[in-house]
Amino acid sequence: MLPQAVNRSSRKPHVLTVAGSDSGGGAGIQADIKACGALGVYCSTAITALTAQNTMGVQGIHVTPEDIFARQLEAVLSDMEVDVVKTGMLPTPQIVNILCSHLESYSVKGLVVDPVFVATSGDQLTSHEVVDVIRKKLLPLADIVTPNLPEAALLSGKVHLRTCIDMHEAAKIIKDFGPRYVLVKGGHLDHVSAENVDVLYDGETFWDFHGTWVETMNTHGTGCTLASCIAAEMAKGNPVPVAVQAAKDYIQRALEHSKNMKIAKGLHGPLDHFFSFPEYSKISRCKGFQTNSLRLYAVIDLGMKRRWQCSAAEALRCAIEGGATIVHLRDKETGAVDFLKKAESCVEVSRKSRIPLLINDRLDIAMVCEADGVHLEQSGLPVKQARRLLGSDKIIGVSCKSIEQAQKAYEDGADYVVCGPVYPTTTEENSITVGLDGLYAICRATSLPVVAIGGINASNVEEILTEKPTTLHGIAVVSELFDKPDICKAMQELAGMIYGFFHDEVEKPLVHHCCM
Ligand SMILES: Cc1ncc(COP(=O)(O)OP(=O)(O)O)c(N)n1
Ligand SMILES: Cc1ncsc1CCOP(=O)(O)O
């Protein structure tokens, strides 16, 4: 049981957005709240201006009186634990000055500056003097500034930005004003190819972020949304380049989902921030990894005594046939050459069935056999380094016994955690059980998907899943595979029991087919 840690760790990542209100709901404060909400992050606000705005343009602007603007900042920053501040429309130099003095008095983990000067409709949103104050006062405090091409031209004084090389030049000039990173967005480049490139620069390295060009008029609010997503991902503890990649992925999907949406008469419709919300929440940080794959997690331990005689690949095939939704291959005894051979034959089987295959601890083997990812034990490679080597397309899971370990796994970039032993088990000797309370405490403290492990079998699945927290995504078994003479049948029994507890369409197992 880990009760004392629950309150401290169940706090939500928090973004304070300092921006203007868009009555049309597509940009500004409204976009920021929706984007943060969609990414599971709390969003507070300090409103800089009220705009009367719709899909046809901006019809009016009322700047917030300075004292009430300052009071909003004071109210939020003095009371709430803000992780990251994100700025949008800052209409006057006075508003920027008030913000900067508050940022100097209250420490926050990050500052994302979206330098909003002109709306896509062509309407001016800030006074001309604002550019200079942002350059001199706000940018030195910023972790990242996210200009599009017209904004980069204004900030850098480099009027003609037409190529990627121009974007690099502008990024260098803007970097000299003091932000840690500059992201120059290429959405306004002439589109000769189907690609869209944004350039991130930290003073030494340029990263090019490629996206696919989406043919749509529903782009109102993309700048605000991208900056908010970056802030939200930073608030979760992600480093800036990882946050940018996650934000780009969100925008790409939002643009694709919103391209046929019609909600007004005007030319520039907004994004649908909550596009397919239930489906989106099933997608993990790792591109393409559906977290409902974690429902029935089969660990094939090649070092264990077993009641069947067949190859690793055959055992894996049987587990999948019985309904396993993800498989995890571990072998603590075999040398690299033999393990690799077995892993390669398993990858072949898992690919055919489109079931993800993870390799336990051996990042080298996982990379060489092109498995879907790696599962790391606490004694294994640190997650951060593994992520650096594997990139963002591969799955990384981590074994955790405590809230602290689960939080670290999250901060370091893991995609899911396996928690246990929930019940006593002979598979993991000398391992203290966390119990059902410990498992649930971890589930409530993390936003990562959790898989329960340890002593789980058909007789206790119901107990685990009946009142499960929402982050508990599935169960993992080892000896249920090894102590039973028929792997396929053992999996089928478990699979049959778990479907009712999850309201999604995990495919039912195929007709029983004994493979022993
Ligand atoms: C109140 C308010 N803030 C910012 C903008 C600009 O939003 P952006 O995300 O750059 O999208 P466009 O409006 O340029 O499409 C705004 N319009 N209103
Ligand atoms: C790998 C692992 N981590 C915690 S318990 C455990 C083993 C669980 O095995 P079993 O399903 O046989 O109890």
UniProtKB/TrEMBL annotation:
Pfam families: Phos_pyr_kin, TMP-TENI. Keywords: ATP-binding, Kinase, Magnesium, Metal-binding, Multifunctional enzyme, Nucleotide-binding, Thiamine biosynthesis, Transferase. Residues 296-480 form the Thiamine phosphate synthase/TenI domain. It catalyses: 2-(2-carboxy-4-methylthiazol-5-yl)ethyl phosphate + 4-amino-2-methyl-5-(diphosphooxymethyl)pyrimidine + 2 H(+) = thiamine phosphate + CO2 + diphosphate; 2-[(2R,5Z)-2-carboxy-4-methylthiazol-5(2H)-ylidene]ethyl phosphate + 4-amino-2-methyl-5-(diphosphooxymethyl)pyrimidine + 2 H(+) = thiamine phosphate + CO2 + diphosphate; 4-methyl-5-(2-phosphooxyethyl)-thiazole + 4-amino-2-methyl-5-(diphosphooxymethyl)pyrimidine + H(+) = thiamine phosphate + diphosphate. Coiled coil: none annotated. Pathway: Cofactor biosynthesis; thiamine diphosphate biosynthesis; thiamine phosphate from 4-amino-2-methyl-5-diphosphomethylpyrimidine and 4-methyl-5-(2-phosphoethyl)-thiazole: step 1/1. This is thiamine phosphate synthase. GO terms for biological process: thiamine biosynthetic process. GO terms for cellular component: chloroplast. Its cofactor is Mg(2+). InterPro entries: Aldolase_TIM (IPR013785), HMP/HMP-P_kinase_dom (IPR004399), PM/HMP-P_kinase-1 (IPR013749), Ribokinase-like (IPR029056), ThiamineP_synth_sf (IPR036206), ThiamineP_synth_TenI (IPR022998), TMP_synthase (IPR034291). It comes from Ceratopteris richardii (Triangle waterfern). GO terms for molecular function: ATP binding; hydroxymethylpyrimidine kinase activity; metal ion binding; phosphomethylpyrimidine kinase activity; thiamine-phosphate diphosphorylase activity. Its EC number is 2.5.1.3. HAMAP family: TMP_synthase. Residues 22-270 form the Pyridoxamine kinase/Phosphomethylpyrimidine kinase domain. Transmembrane segments: none annotated.
